[in-house]
Amino acid sequence: MRHILLLGGTTEASALATALATRGERAVLSYAGRTEAPRAQAIPTRVGGFGGIEGLAEHLRREGITHLIDATHPFAARISANAIAAAELTGVPLLGLTRPAWEAGPGDRWIRVADTAAAVAALGSEPTRVFLALGRQTIGDFADAEQHFYLLRFVDAAQPPALPHRHLVVDRGPFTLAGELALLREHRIRVIVAKNAGGSGARAKLDAARELGLPVVMIDRPLIPARSQVHSVVGVLDWLDHGVVRGV
C-alpha cells in the first residue's frame, strides 16, 4: 500500500488531502508550523520541520514513505529544495503541486523585483501608505523604512514585527474583489507589495489594484532545482496511479 507524505500549508495541499482521504490513501500532511491555528484536514497531520535534508531523508526511510508530494507555498524555497535532495537520497518519487504564477495584464502597474530588499527600495524615501500582502516571515525586512504606513493581514493575531506605523487585519482568504476594494479604500492605500504566489484565493487584491490604478511591487518567485510538477489535484492523482506526469 502506498504511504504518502504531503508537504502542505496551501489551499492546494488541503484540496489534495481531501482527495486522498476520499480515495482511502494512506497519507500524512506536514505543516511547517508557522500558523497558530491551521485548518482541520481530512488526513492525519504533523507539525514542525524535519531537520534539513538528512532529517527529511531519515523520516522518509523510517516511516516507509513511498511517495513525496511538495504542495508548499511557491516561496518556501528551502523546504522544496530539501525535498528534492531528500528524494534523490532515498529514491522516493517526488512531485510538486504548485500554482501557475500570476501574469500582468492590461491596466496592471507592476514593478517586478527579485526579493524583499528590492521591494523596500522600490517604495522610495517619501512616506506612503503600503499594503504589505506578505507572510509574517518577511515583514521585518521593512522595519528600516519606517516612514511608511503599513497595512498587514495575517491569518492569526500573533504579534507582528515592530513597525512604528502599522495596522493589522486578521483574516483568512479566499478574498473577494469587493472586499479588497473596501479594504484598500478604507486604509487609503497607495501601493501594494505582494509575492507572486499565484492561485485564485489571493488574486483579488491585484484586480482591486488594477481597478484603483495602484502600483503593485511584485516579488518574483525564488528559483528551486528542476523537478516534476503539476498544477492540479487531478494531475497528482494521475501521477500516483500511473507514475508519469501528463502536464495536468
Please explain how this structure is put together.
The protein is an alpha/beta fold and 248 residues long. It has 2 domains: 3-100 and 223-242, NAD(P)-binding Rossmann-like Domain (Rossmann fold, 3-Layer(aba) Sandwich); 109-219, NAD(P)-binding Rossmann-like Domain (Rossmann fold), CATH 3.40.50. The protein is built from 8 helices and 12 strands. The protein has helices at residues 11-23, 52-63, 77-90, 116-123, 136-139, 177-186, 204-212, 233-242; strands spanning 3-7, 26-31, 45-47, 67-70, 94-97, 109-113, 129-133, 149-154, 166-170, 191-195, 215-219, 229-230. Strand 4, helix 3 and strand 5 (94-97) form a beta-alpha-beta unit. The relative contact order is 0.16. The model has no long low-confidence stretch (mean pLDDT 92).
Supply the key terms.
22% strand, elongated, Rossmann fold, 12 strands, 248 residues, 8 helices, alpha/beta
Please summarize what this structure is.
With 248 residues, the chain is an alpha/beta fold.
* Poorly predicted residue ranges: none
Strand order of the largest sheet: 3-2-1-4-5-12
The average pLDDT value, as a whole number, equals 92
Q: Report the top-level CATH class of the largest domain.
A: Alpha Beta
* Gross geometry: elongated
**CATH H-level name of the largest domain... which superfamily?**
NAD(P)-binding Rossmann-like Domain
Strand segment count: 12
Domains counted in the coordinates: how many?
2
As a whole number of angstroms, the C-alpha radius of gyration is 19 Å
CATH architecture call of the largest domain: 3-Layer(aba) Sandwich
Distance between the termini: 24 Å
CATH topology of the largest domain: Rossmann fold
How large is the count of helical segments?
8
Order of helices and strands: EHEEHEHEEHEHEEHEHEEH
Sheet with most strands = 6 strands, parallel
- Structural class by secondary-structure content: alpha/beta
Task: Assess the beta-strand content as a share of residues.
Answer: 15-25%
Helix content: 25-40%
